[in-house]
What does this fold into?
Amino acid sequence: MSRVPFCWEEAHRLVGIDAVHQPIPIRPTVHYSMGGIPVNTDGRVRSGAEGLVEGFFAAGEAACVSVHGANRLGSNSLLECVVYGRRTGAAIAQYVQSRKLPEIDEQRYLTQAEQQIQALIDQPGEYRIDQIRQSFQDCMTDHCGVFRTESVMREGLEKLQAIRQQAQKIYLDDKAKLWNTELIEALELQNLLIVGEIILTGALNRQESRGAHCREDFAERDDTNFLKHTMAYYSPAGIQIGDRPVTITLFEPQERKY
Ligand SMILES: Cc1cc2nc3c(=O)[nH]c(=O)nc-3n(C[C@H](O)[C@H](O)[C@H](O)COP(=O)(O)OP(=O)(O)OC[C@H]3O[C@@H](n4cnc5c(N)ncnc54)[C@H](O)[C@@H]3O)c2cc1C
It folds into this structure.
């Protein structure tokens, strides 16, 4: 109670337990996604091993500055949000000073977005968003947990294809155009499924164990073949996997042992 009173409070608030007298039930959960949109230390998005994508910035958990290696240490993601969020904001502010807004046909993008939203609202559908998201979460938990093998992940990819088919047939109860959180969930779901497929494909390709990626079929770290960043490119035609070299400066990568 004197050192971690908030733990007692949480256990009491969530499950009604007095942690001074009773053990707190615990279970593992995902608390971070290693990887993300590849960026440099100013939040500018990388297009590949060398180039940058014009006018595209990312920060926070969506981004991958590559400060965490293959296993993000506890409490470092909020630190990352603060440090690189600030740097990225400053870089954007500087970037816009020296550029004019590009001339684009706004109407084209507006029409596309309106059509996408209207189609989601109108479609009759068979499945609720929650059902699909739950199947997706179960699929990732069962087939892309910390300990994985090729066969387990291949099975997961097959399941994911089936879930993506079902996700085409969702329906929305809320048809409103304002403050429609169900619509946001529907849009997020489409992106989640793509990210899930990218994670599984990248993990399948990496035939070694490193950080939180423990391949039971490739138990050792293999620096000769895999000391490199995975670069995954998505298009509706499929996912392409490439790589980018790791720049080693002061510290040689070391295995983290518990
Ligand atoms: C269980 C758990 C425990 C954790 N514990 C710790 C810890 O102890 N210490 C630590 O440092 N970190 C911890 N983390 C990680 C940390 O909480 C996250 O890395 C951090 O909150 C990410 O912040 P963010 O702003 O980048 O992203 P988020 O907080 O995920 O914000 C992204 C926002 O974008 C919105 N969004 C998504 N798609 C769209 C779209 N298409 N259009 C518009 N909006 C969209 C989402 O709804 C969301 O609000 C933990 C995470 C979890 C899940």
In short: Residues 181-205 form the longest helix (25 residues).
